[in-house]
Task: structure prediction
Amino acid sequence: MESYYRPTRAEISLDALRSNLEAYRRALPKETRMLASVKANAYGHGAVEIAKEAEAFGIDYLGVAFLDEALQLRGAGIRAPILVLGFVPADGLELARDLDITITLFREDILEAIEALPPHAEGKRLKAHIKVDTGMGRLGLLGAGEAAAFIGRAMRVPGLELEGMFTHYARADEADKSYTELQYRRFGEVVKHLESRGVRLPLIHAANSAAGIDTPEWACGMVRIGIGMYGLYPSEEVNRTRIALEPVLSLKTETVMVKNVPEGWGISYGTRYFAKDGERIGTLPIGYADGFSRMLTGKAHALVRGVKVPVRGTICMDQCMIGLDDAGSPDSPVGCGEEVVLIGRQGDAVITADEVAAQLGTIHYEVTCMLNARVPRVYKRSGQIAIVRNPIVRP
Ligand SMILES: Cc1ncc(COP(=O)(O)O)c(C=O)c1O
Result:
């Protein structure tokens, strides 16, 4: 087991992860496949361990944002199919082919670069999924005509295996499904147009976590599950009764110094907070350089002994302070070494990633993604520590 010497850690419940994947599996039609999106270090949860767990679950595909993320997984011994959802430049194509990494294809010059690849010794071909832009305005070919012409050319490239085609919904997490329906119809037109020319790609996919919950009938052949797998609903507007999700990540630390300070004692840089007389202040070994943003100053809370207490003063690079007057009692004051939860549950109290996101003016996706390599990941199964990853000590 890897060690870490600061009590700050992200606890990752492998049971919750499994339960979320099973919940999607149960809710989706049997023939619908599932891709687990482990990009951005698995939304902050740790790409390798999450990918291993998804692989053990029997996931059909893993999704990453760029080739380096796929290389990390292959380097860790992960053998499941991997789709790079973003751009792969020409100089990464040969490596992708040799390591069985599927690329997303939408550019003519990349098609030409595939044509120019030296043939693989054992005849391996580079697998690709064509990306179609149906209204996200990000990556992808526009419309049926452009896609059909591109696919026609791609099918003549001997070193290329066209395995699939996909699109991405821009507003699947909204209650109003009219834009998603429009995108689904546009995508359907592309599929039909290709079929009319005798082209049928084996794996057509469109849905993200939100569409997987609300409109699985518009998923086509596979749902690409990201945020939902981590137990967070994509938005307030999706139908939470359809799939029961459980948050996977908790952010925890401990008090490393506790003291009662005199009236008006300045707390942290800029002394933006002056303590009340005798206020009990706890110091936590976590700060903005861990991904606990300085922009949470004056807004964030922490759970101590099942009570929500405020962060006091400016959040520093490695540390921050909390006011402990509402937790503990004169007979049993909060001391050093007590558990502090910044995201997650403690007793009946909870701080959600959503709540932190609202304080930052962002979405929960960003909150978990911000947690970086300084924060060890402690993976738990059945309440017991199963794996510890501390990339600072062992990258
Ligand atoms: C192409 C693509 N598919 C699927 C996903 C997963 O999205 P979500 O986390 O909302 O399920 C993403 C993430 O942004 C994506 O970019």
About this structure: The domain at 249-389 is CATH 2.40.37.10 (Lyase, Ornithine Decarboxylase; Chain A, domain 1). The chain has two domains: 31-225, 249-389. The pocket of pyridoxal-5'-phosphate is lined by residues 37, 85, 168, 208-210, 224-228, 234 (CB under 6 Å).
